[in-house]
Write a structure and sequence with these properties.
about 280 residues, alpha/beta, TIM Barrel, 7-stranded parallel beta sheet, two-stranded antiparallel sheet, 11 helices, 11 strands, about 40% helix, globular
Length: about 280
């Protein structure tokens, strides 16, 4: 495992034309309420300019609230969304990544986000009923039509990512990854080699770190940081293509998450954190 060569406070460019700060905001809990709106506004004030959502989050409320709150920040914030998961009125989820469905999903996201073009659109999950190539090709056609600027895939294996790239230019991958869950190491390392941005969802898992209170305490003191901040700093250290999206409904935690980008871990300390959390 090689450390990132870039400072965590630097920015990252997605697909050559979407440049953002390296700590974004995940919005799977954003709703149409005061707390959610306050977090979105404060995020922009703190310099967060990458917002990640999906059409299936909180019954479409996440996209709709983001569209309303961030309408005055067009051109300043990159909004990524996802499609391919369908939530019925009872809350049950199913997959539909068919070429017939995805255009409807994209149109719905465009309307809720109140944008003429989606900055970054992810295939949310591979539909076992549909070859990934067909799903990606359908999104490529929507990209050619100007509905989408850049394409990504989410929750993919390395073979699935390689297959997707045969059908479209894939500039970002969103997989579950954190200091305690590194099953996507192979995908991350591939992304680093190929210049593909890696967006880890569920980026903060600190329960294993917390079990090593005595060994962790010196690092918390050294960096004047919380376990969550060190877990985020480790992600930024892990790879220069990493773009974490911690989610929160607390403006206080939001500020702490953003501040983690200022922590430059020493290699030995990064190795210690990985050992404690592994």
């Amino acid at each position: 495992m090689e450390p990132a060569t870039e400072n965590a406070t630097q920015r990252i460019t997605i697909g050559g034309d979407l440049t953002v700060n390296r700590v974004g905001l995940g919005t799977n809990r954003i709703r149409d309420d005061a707390a959610s709106r306050a977090v979105l506004r404060r995020a922009v004030e703190l310099g967060v300019n990458f917002i990640d959502t999906a059409d299936s989050y909180t019954g479409e409320a996440s996209e709709r609230t983001i569209g309303e709150v961030l309408a005055s920040y067009r051109g300043q914030v990159v909004i990524a969304t996802k499609g391919g998961i369908v939530v019925n009125p009872s809350g049950e989820r199913s997959l539909n990544a068919s070429p017939e469905y995805l255009p409807r999903a994209v149109e719905g996201s465009l309307a809720r986000l109140q944008v003429p073009q989606i900055d970054l659109y992810f295939l949310h999950k591979v539909d076992p009923k549909v070859p990934i190539g067909e799903s990606v090709a359908a999104l490529r056609e929507l990209q050619a039509a100007g509905k989408i600027k850049q394409l990504g895939v989410s929750t993919v294996t390395l073979p699935q990512l390689e297959e997707a790239r045969k059908h479209a230019t894939i500039v970002a991958v969103e997989n579950q990854y954190n200091i305690s869950d590194r099953e996507s190491d192979d995908v991350l390392d591939y992304c680093a080699r190929e210049g593909i941005v890696f967006v880890p969802y569920y980026p903060v898992r600190t329960s294993r770190l917390a079990q090593h209170e005595r060994e962790l305490a010196p690092l918390l003191a050294k960096y004047d940081a919380t376990p969550t901040q060190l877990a985020l700093a480790w992600l930024l250290w892990r790879s220069p293509v990493m773009l974490p999206i911690p989610g929160t409904l607390s403006v206080e935690h939001l500020a702490q998450n953003v501040a983690a980008a200022n922590i430059a871990l020493a290699p030995d300390d990064a190795a210690t954190l990985a050992r404690l959390a592994g």
